[in-house]
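User: Just a sanity check before I run the rest of the batch. Below are the C-alpha cells for the first item. I only need the designed sequence back.
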C-alpha cells in the first residue's frame, strides 16, 4: 500500500468519483474532512477508519424496503383444515413400548459393539444412534404421535448413576420406551418418548 499523502488522497477521490456504481445506489462520503484528518499520526488512523466507512444508500427509497422485497420469498397461503376433535388414537394405533425397546437395544448393540469410550467421538455416536432409532420407530407409522429420542453415552468406570425423566402428559395415550447397553469402557441408555398430538 502506498504511503498516505495529500496527492494519494486526491487521486483516490478522483478514482472514487469516476467509479461506476449501480444506477440506484450512490455512495455518501463521511462528514469529516479528509485533509484535516491527515495532520497527525492518529489522524491518519482515523482517516483509514473513515475512508472504509462509506455508507450505501438508495436513491428514492430505503434500503430496508428493497432488501425485504428482494430477500423475502413469496409466502404460500397456508392450508386450513377443519378440526377433527380426536382426543384418542385410533384402534391399534397406540404407541406400544415393547417393540420399540427391542429396536433401541438392537441399534445400541450393533452401533457400539467393540467401541471404546472417547468423549469426542461418543458425542457424534449419540447423535447418529438417536437419529437411527427415530427413523426405525417412524416405520411403525403411528399417526399423530410426536417422537422424542434421547441417547446418553458415558464412561463405564464402576460408578453409580441414576437417570430421571419427567414429563406432563396424558397417561392413557402417551408412553416411553428405554433400553441400556454396557461394555468394558462405556454405557449407553436410549429412550424414546411418544406424545399423542390432539
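Assistant: Here's the designed sequence for the first item:
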Amino acid at each position: 500500500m502506498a504511503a498516505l499523502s495529500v496527492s494519494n488522497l486526491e487521486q483516490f477521490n478522483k478514482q472514487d468519483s469516476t467509479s461506476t456504481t449501480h444506477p440506484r445506489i450512490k455512495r455518501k462520503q463521511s462528514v469529516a474532512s479528509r485533509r484535516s484528518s491527515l495532520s497527525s499520526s492518529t489522524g491518519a488512523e482515523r482517516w483509514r477508519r473513515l475512508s472504509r466507512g462509506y455508507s450505501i444508500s438508495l436513491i428514492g427509497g430505503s434500503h430496508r424496503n428493497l432488501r425485504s422485497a428482494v430477500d423475502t420469498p413469496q409466502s404460500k397461503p397456508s392450508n386450513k383444515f377443519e378440526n377433527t376433535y380426536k382426543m384418542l388414537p385410533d384402534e391399534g394405533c397406540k404407541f406400544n413400548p415393547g417393540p420399540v425397546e427391542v429396536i433401541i437395544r438392537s441399534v445400541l448393540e450393533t452401533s457400539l459393539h467393540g467401541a471404546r469410550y472417547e468423549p469426542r467421538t461418543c458425542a457424534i455416536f449419540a447423535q447418529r444412534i438417536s437419529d437411527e432409532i427415530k427413523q426405525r420407530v417412524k416405520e411403525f407409522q403411528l399417526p399423530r404421535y410426536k417422537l422424542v429420542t434421547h441417547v446418553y453415552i458415558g464412561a463405564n468406570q464402576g460408578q453409580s448413576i441414576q437417570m430421571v425423566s419427567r414429563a406432563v402428559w396424558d397417561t392413557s395415550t402417551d408412553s416411553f420406551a428405554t433400553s441400556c447397553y454396557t461394555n468394558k469402557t462405556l454405557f449407553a441408555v436410549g429412550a424414546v418418548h411418544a406424545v399423542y398430538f390432539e
